Amino acid sequence: MKYISTRGQAPELTFEEAMLTGLARDGGLYVPAEIPQMSKGDIAALAGLSYEETAFRVMWPFVSDSFTEEEFRGCITRAYADFGHAARAPMVQLAPNHFLLELFHGPTLAFKDFAMQLIGQLFQVALKRRGETVTIVGATSGDTGSAAIEAFRGLDAVNVFILYPHGRVSEVQRRQMTTPDDSNVHALAVDGDFDDCQARVKDMFNDFEFRDGVKLAGVNSINFARVLAQVVYYFYSAVALGAPEREVSFTVPTGNFGDIFAGFIAKQMGLPIDRLVVATNQNDILHRCLSGQGYFKGDTIPSISPSMDIQVSSNFERALFYAYGRDGAAVAQLMDELGQGGFNVSQGAMQALSEAYDSGRCSEDETLATIKAQTAASGELLCPHSAVGVKVADEVRNTTAMVTLATAHPAKFPAAVEKASGMHPPLPPRMADLYDRPERVTRIGSDLATLEDHIRKTIAN
Ligand SMILES: Cc1ncc(COP(=O)(O)O)c(C=O)c1O
Ligand SMILES: N[C@@H](CCOP(=O)(O)O)C(=O)O
Ranges for the Threonine synthase N-terminal domain (predicted)? Predict the structure, then answer.
């Protein structure tokens, strides 16, 4: 399997190379040159399998150029061993034909653990074999950072720097990033918003002297391995509901577009998905774009679903790549225009996007109302991101079974959940002392030189 850049000007790589490389050297994102297919029989054969066996069968064609079967199976087993639920991704029914896929039973209580725990294992195997060390720099609006720190803490071959927007993540998210005491992990509270953090990470990748000097690697969904690991739960849940005989739709609380794009890949592989619904909060650039209004950046407005407070949605570039018929030059042109504020989508590409995705928006009041209503109706306490998904799903769903992705545990956002439901969501016992642990964090400006200098000096010490 070869991996190619969405901008068409970077070298083709193997899975392992793409995983360790992060951003392509032309500024694009890696995607598989061809998407492996699963037949109806292959999908039917997933019925009743464990999450781990499903993961192996779905992902193996994407990675088999880089790992032995034994290595890959070992990585999968270790990745999911610490999840707090035997099913890994259990499903609960909210209403007739509406299901909630709980993706928050991993070590940091968000869906990010599904990919990050696996990538942590894959990096260890690959780096050991190569005898290399890397510096991971990641941007987070709250959940990617904690998941990355948890997956890579204590490893000799990896230094991790996580940039998060100061004052714009929940207290639980912040403490998950600032309380681990391992000397290889570093939380940086950046004066800016998530888009500033993500832009600086991409700037670092595009600064080849810095990139090559520190051996930069990325674990944001820039990294296709992140997206790949998230494809698995689309298969796992759809098969549990009767696929391939029965079509299923998904609604996905969306910010950086990685999770919904994993659904797109699942559909391209052959999973009978009817609709993929993008659910946004008040930062609704994706909903506006998918409604035909072009992709134009505004100011990010802080919300009660802070992990989705994003304007420049990284993986939308991958969606555009397919919508523009895999035309790297067209994508590069759009990304240039985005640098100037935004772009309009061509008619043909708009049609392709509309065929692939539906969308909806959920306001702050609607988010609170949905948490309250669901607590009363089903007893399920939703996190504000999952509530955005449930509200939009309820607006669009029809007779096809709808799965809404519950992307984080309510205990990560206790203030909003308590305000809406009157109930305080407790942290799981293993995190009960999170508020008592000492924090370690560096407050830092958002300019590239300051950040690069800090990272260089920290590594050198
Ligand atoms: C809890 C939660 N929900 C939803 C999202 C949006 O996911 P994506 O960025 O893959 O669109 C995020 C952040 O990525 C998140 O942390
Ligand atoms: N919501 C994310 C933002 C980063 O997304 P990623 O999927 O590209 O890592 C977060 O919680 O950090």
Answer: 2-80
pLDDT tier, 421 (very low <50, low <70, confident <90, very high otherwise): very high
- Rounded CA-CA distance 91/85 in Å is 11
Give residue-wise pLDDT tens across range 183-195.
Answer: 999 999 999 999 9
Does the reported pTM lie above 0.90? yes
pLDDT given at position 36: 98
Amino acid (1-letter code) at residue 304: I
Give the integer Cα–Cα distance in Å for 8 and 27: 10
220 lines ligand 2 (CB under 6 A): yes
Distance, CA 72 to ligand 2 centroid (Å)?
A: 25
- Ligand 2 geometric centre to CA of 115 (Å): 12
Question: Could you tell me the residue ranges of all domains in the chain?
Answer: 91-108+224-421
Residue 168 CA: which ligand is closest? Answer: 2
Q: How far apart are CA 414 and CA 412, in angstroms?
A: 6
ipTM for the whole predicted complex goes beyond 0.95: yes
C-beta of 384 in contact with ligand 1 (< 6 A): no
Radius of gyration of the chain (CA): 20
Helical H runs in 13-153? Answer: 15-21, 40-44, 51-63, 69-80, 112-130, 143-152
* Ligand 2 near 141 CB (within 6 A): yes
Fold of 91-108+224-421: Rossmann fold (3.40.50)
CB-ligand 1 contact for 113 (6 Å cutoff)? no
Average pLDDT estimate for 149-175: 98
Query: How does strand 295-296 pair with strand 158-165?
Result: unpaired
Which of 119, 256, 313, when mutated, tests ligand 2's pocket best, judged by the most ligand atoms within 8 Å of its CB? 256
**Phi, psi at residue 210, to the nearest 5°?**
-65, -50
pLDDT tens track for 231-287:
999 999 999 999 999 999 999 999 999 999 999 999 999 999 999 999 999 999 999
pLDDT at 41 over 90: yes
Q: Which residues contact 359 (CB under 8 A, 6 or more apart)?
A: 277, 278, 279, 280, 286, 287, 290, 291, 392
Nearest bound ligand to the CA of residue 383: 1
* Euclidean distance between CA atoms 273 and 231, whole angstroms: 12
Q: Is the CB of 143 under 6 A from ligand 2?
A: yes
What span, in angstroms and rounded, lies between the C-alpha atoms of 242 and 234? 12
